Amino acid sequence: MDSIQINIKNLAGIVSEEEILRKSELATSANNALHDGTREGSDFLGWVDLPSSITEEEFRDIEEAATVLRTHCDVVVVVGIGGSYLGARAVIDALTNSFDWLQPEKKRKNPVILYAGNNISEDYLSEMIDYLENKEFGIINISKSGTTTEPAIAFRLLKNLLEKKVGNEESKKRIVAITDATKGALRTLADSEGYKTFIIPDNIGGRYSVLTPVGLLPIAVAGINIRKLVTGAAEIEKATDKTVSFDYNLPAIYAVIRNELYRRGKKIEILVNYHPKLHFLAEWWKQLFGESEGKDQMGIFPAAVDFTADLHSMGQWIQEGERTIFETVISIKEPNKKVLVPHDEVNLDGLNYLKGKRVDEVNKMAELGTRLAHVDGGVPNILIEIPELNEKYIGQLIYFFEKACGISGYLLGVNPFNQPGVEAYKSNMFALLEKPGYEEATKSIKSKL
Ligand SMILES: O=P(O)(O)OC[C@H]1O[C@H](O)[C@H](O)[C@@H](O)[C@@H]1O
Question: Which residues act catalytically here (predicted)?
Fold first, then answer.
């Protein structure tokens, strides 16, 4: 198997193969609309042929900027929120050593990657500043709109710290801004300071931007091969183009199944992983599907669990709670490392029945046992199998989910490329903070308190 696979044999009898096939024309037409730009949100389809259209020059530009940061910095802080950080973090966590950041600087091949601007926690920022005080650090500041409050606050603090530590000139070498070509405060600031910048194309929304410099620059700084990542994505781009029939279009099949489950009362999709490295892939996936489909009072609620950890906390609910859920499991066929359970003479822990077995064999039996139990408990199960955890297959998975999300949103009947609901909290926050321009809103909100 040279590609991610999808196994749909465990739908708990809730959706049949015939019912899936009956939707093939609708799914194919949704897929075509993504390529032709004939439905709502057609201004945001730049991601559809992005993997196959990144040029050698663009790769080099990103790789060179990554080399500058890698040369000057032991720590690089990725400042961004939502689509401006989750994709990078998903890939970096999935493809780097979980404990590398604990190694002393001399032993490390890659800079430590930290994340800021994804919260407004004073403690978090204060502790990060303390840590960075004695580090050679740099900043990748990412915001498509260039006006998002969380990253703007973090960047102001970190920029001040960096300038104090290394001076304005050296700071300019260590700061990269990724934002709109012309609009927004970050564009103005970056141009006036003379930072190296990358552009987020107008026609690619934040949650679809991981294969633009938004994701690729931090990923390259972390020492990951971005060309292989993009190659993987391009393979699924090709495998889901307009010439591919529904039976072979895996994202279309996944999109149909989740919509059919939704129509039958399965309102919550739980993305399951069995490797902690995939935790942030699920966070990325949650934004992708949550912002794309949760509108017009509709949409599957995307949730995620890390197994087997959460089997010891959420396992009870999944097995026997309200039957409104289905699971999508990401299964990694072959781990990158090999660890065997050792023999123990006295066997006080009673584990000798596992001696000589790979830890992954135990993990796989937990996975299989859980799947069988959950399906028996009435939880439909979609299985996505990845041959191994590497750049190519993560690239494939990214495009698989992006394509599935576009098709799924159209099948549901929403515009998968806007997110009007996100503004509500921002307007209230600005009114409460008495931001200039919000005077009327301030009066009105304060009268409600
Ligand atoms: O990249 P930015 O413009 O800073 O936006 C960052 C994020 O925040 C917004 O509120 C949107 O809901 C997200 O779709 C976006 O990814």
Answer: 291, 426
CATH superfamily of 5-39+230-412: Glucose-6-phosphate isomerase like protein; domain 1 (3.40.50.10490)
CATH topology of domain 49-224: Rossmann fold (3.40.50)
Q: What's the pLDDT tens digit per position in 235-269?
A: 999 999 999 999 999 999 999 999 999 999 999 99
Structure tokens at 338: 């090999």
Same fold, 5-39+230-412 and 49-224: yes
Q: What are the residue numbers of the active site? A: 291, 426
Q: Tokens 């690239």 belong to which residue?
A: 395
Say if residues 146 and 110 touch (Cβ distance below 8 Å): no
180 lines ligand 1 (CB under 6 A): no
Q: Give this prediction's pTM.
A: 0.98
| CA distance to 208, 240, 241, per residue, from 33 (Å) | 17, 13, 11
Q: Tell whether ligand 1 has an atom less than 6 A from the beta carbon of residue 206.
A: yes
Predicted-complex ipTM score: 0.98
**379: nearest Cα among 329, 330, 323:** 323
